[in-house]
Amino acid sequence: MLFRFSRLAVAGVAALALLATSAPATATATGGPKPTIVLVHGAWADSSSWAPVIERLRRDGYPVRAIADPLQGLTSDTAYVAGYLSTIDGPKVLVRHSYGGAVITNAATEVTGVKSLVYIAGFVPAAGETIGEVAAKSSTPLPLIATQVPAGTEVVIDPAQFPAAFAGDLDRTTAADLATTQRPANTRAVTDASVAEGFRAIPSWALIPRQDRAISPDVQRFMTARAGARNTEVDGSHAVMLSRPDAVTELIEQAAR
């Protein structure tokens, strides 16, 4: 089912703020509480992009949190997310989309209770590697527009080319709304080097959309194989959490179990 972004922005954010954070933990088949699912968006998106997945996770009894990624650089974003994670008691499953994969790879090593990592069309960098270096392996560069701001240089995807690059399997209105409301990312997101490799000690899962034009599926396969992740492939664009929320939810719940 496709969602209009205006509905996501209103209903989805309200659900994140009021419902997802307050949902009680439900016991698993083994008697323990279900882990908290922590969702973090990547570049050129926001937390409302998780709304269809949040709805399904809550329906299945999972407590859910959604973190707004500052998108100001891998080092500072990692510190921000790790600080947020430290406030969540009990077991946690960290789920990140796109650039966010690099953030959980690093933040997971700074907190306790992380049960598993889930990469949704995500980057999985090795220590010492930058997102820019990995992205350069893709055959088709993204059509980016740069703007100088007080905090440095921020980039967005050219709105005219956003649907094809990011959301090729969404309806035109939803894709256009996403293009209009996309959040810019500081270039430090691609120039800060990754430091830690959370996937070395924490089990990881990955969902690879076969029609992803933002991060080449072959590059995703390379990174997830290197990380030893359990891979699942589906037909879908980079915005797979919106176009294929059932598949995304199923993978998250596998990781949670």
Automatic annotation (TrEMBL):
Domain (AB hydrolase-1) spans 37-250
Keyword terms of this UniProt record:
Signal
Superkingdom is: Bacteria
User: What would be an example GO MF term here?
Assistant: catalytic activity
Residues of the signal peptide? 1-27
Taking the record's annotation, the residue ranges forming a coiled coil are: none
- Which InterPro entries does the annotation name? AB_hydrolase_1, AB_hydrolase_fold, Sec-Metab_Biosynth_Hydrolase
Q: Which PANTHER family match?
A: AB HYDROLASE-1 DOMAIN-CONTAINING PROTEIN-RELATED (PTHR37017), ESTERASE_LIPASE_THIOESTERASE DOMAIN-CONTAINING PROTEIN (PTHR37017:SF11)
Protein name as annotated: Pimeloyl-ACP methyl ester carboxylesterase
